[in-house]
Amino acid sequence: MTSKEKYLSKLANRESVAVTEARERIKNREWLQESQNLALRILMRLDKLGMKQKDLAKELGVSAQYVNKLLKGKEKFSWDNIIAIQRILNMPILSGYQPTLVLMSKPYSGKGEIVSPANPVNSSEKEVDVKMGKLVSLFGNDKQYETYQPALSQ
């Protein structure tokens, strides 16, 4: 075997970096998708609160670079980070989270017509503007907003 053949056989046994990275992406596709979805929700919440990533990093006690990496959706969220983020941003991430203010779904009557939620959203997924006394946003796993339909007469 010549030195060229030895070199080529050595290279043939190695997997390229691109192939290795592609295998990792395929293996981790599910959690990457979830991380990206969570990162988008967090970015939207930061925007709504007028906070910057740097502010979140300071509250979490981590570097701004680490928060940036998390919010790009390329890093796994640790349980500690998820719990801290939902507390800091007062947003539901884990299903057992209860925000400080809970709004219960109730039938609404306007102009003589009784209506009820067609697709009720969990009360823990609603955010209320206390000063204005109104519902300002809804969070849900199905990414749908609560809509209303005429209530069934009882």
Automatic annotation (TrEMBL):
Transmembrane segment boundaries: none
UniProt superkingdom: Bacteria
PROSITE patterns in the record: HTH_CROC1
Coiled-coil annotated residue ranges, if any: none
A UniProt-annotated Pfam family: HTH_3
InterPro entries registered for this protein in UniProt: Cro/C1-type_HTH, Lambda_DNA-bd_dom_sf
GO molecular-function terms, A-Z: DNA binding
Domain HTH cro/C1-type: 48-96
Statement: the UniProt record of this protein carries the keyword Amino-acid biosynthesis: no
Record keywords, A-Z: DNA-binding
UniProt KW Ligase keyword: no
SUPFAM superfamilies associated with the record: lambda repressor-like DNA-binding domains
Protein name: DNA-binding transcriptional regulator, XRE-family HTH domain
Biological classification of the source: Bacteria, Pseudomonadati, Bacteroidota, Flavobacteriia, Flavobacteriales
